[in-house]
Amino acid sequence: MSAPLRRVLAWGRLSADEHRWTTLADRSTVARSIRGGGLPFGNGRSYGDVCLNAGGVLWSTRGLDRFIAFDREAGLVECEAGLLLKDIIDVVLPSGWFLPVVPGTQFITVGGAIANDVHGKAHHAAGSFGDQVLSFELVRTDGQVVQCSPDENAEWFRATVGGLGLTGVITRARLRLRKVSGPWLESETIPFDSLEEFFRLSSEARKSFEYTVSWIDCVSGGRGRGVFFQGNHGGKTDPAPARRPKTFPLTPPVSLINSLSLRAFNFAYYRMNKLKQGRGWQHYVPFFFPLDNLLEWNRIYGPRGFFQYQSVVPPGVQLDATRAMLQEIARSGLGSFLAVLKTFGERAAPGLLSFPMPGTTLALDFPNQGAQTLALFERLDAIVAEAGGRLYPAKDARMTRAMFEAGYPRLSEFINYLDPGISSSMSRRLLGR
Ligand SMILES: Cc1cc2nc3c(=O)[nH]c(=O)nc-3n(C[C@H](O)[C@H](O)[C@H](O)COP(=O)(O)OP(=O)(O)OC[C@H]3O[C@@H](n4cnc5c(N)ncnc54)[C@H](O)[C@@H]3O)c2cc1C
Prior knowledge:
alpha+beta, eight-stranded antiparallel beta sheet, five-stranded antiparallel beta sheet, 13 helices, globular, binds flavin-adenine dinucleotide
């Protein structure tokens, strides 16, 4: 019997193509279930087409959601790859442990976190998600099962961490945790008025803060006004404030983000944080996952959806390249309130196609306004390419093959590990297969 057809949207809601949807729920039968070809699908929190396989098969991994082991002494957890990071945090935190690297949402699977080698606010201190993975099991469509770690089948480990789901299905993983004394962080909010100030704050913060991130006002132009957030886990153990997440109720007929609403929001957000500046306690949910309190917020951009453009540029040119991008964005009148600026640390990436590299990453959401938006991206691409930077596939839905090849010099090595039974909308666009 063939799998049911389902329209699947990635987080950016740019397309709603039909897919044949199958569910993997039993590790022992994965090899048999994937023989006919398809693409692993985690929780669909990637923005563009890395998690889509338009017209083809998706293997939903959310049924692979069992804990296998939790070593409370050593801080190690072993679980199936469809488990959400939220489920892991909920179980390990009461025993004084936390995941060392978390992205801006906890609603992603372990498999998705490995396949995009996601990063968080702690890159300078802990690296990316792949740096916390001790081992995993990879099942290929020819039935081969590969046990991977930095020491065992290390070449498969390097290809699969950040491997965009194209090397096989990860069925289980063993992860390192970090000790914490409670669910709260001691945080500090610092408004800044220029990019120079942002870079000064970043280099000071990395000496004494595990987590750093900034919001940047994308309508203020190349000047680069924003708010810097830094924090460390702290000893406060009070229970979490009772707050149930709300759901954005509907998809409005047009994007609610436009140049007027953006200008008003940015002005108010900057002012509000200026008033709140200084030190304080923050619970880990609003600190790490502020957007998780408004479920389905991606509907705000209306029926045409939205793009995220996330780049990283190297340290030597980070000031000029970031300024040039912000000037282009301000000139365009496009952009959104979700604009994030962060510096990555120096450590070598664990995956052949890992996105993080030393330098500065800028991420911005843009309502899909068709040709106008795509034209802006071409101008931003030129700045990123000239700077020797790259774009993040987890967020991408439109970069060119040339841009991908230029940004990922180890691509030719990676190609050797592709599973011939796996293909995605992104792989067809960027690799031609
Ligand atoms: C609000 C929000 C904030 C975010 N913040 C960040 C951030 O700060 N940093 C960051 O790096 N990312 C961030 N992201 C992006 C997100 O973390 C990644 O896209 C992540 O990979 C999504 O995981 P997923 O489980 O939803 O996987 P999906 O999006 O469903 O799939 C992602 C990729 O993983 C592959 N895959 C999934 N499961 C498996 C498996 N078991 N075996 C092999 N391959 C698999 C898929 O084929 C696909 O290529 C954010 C996303 C959102 C919506």
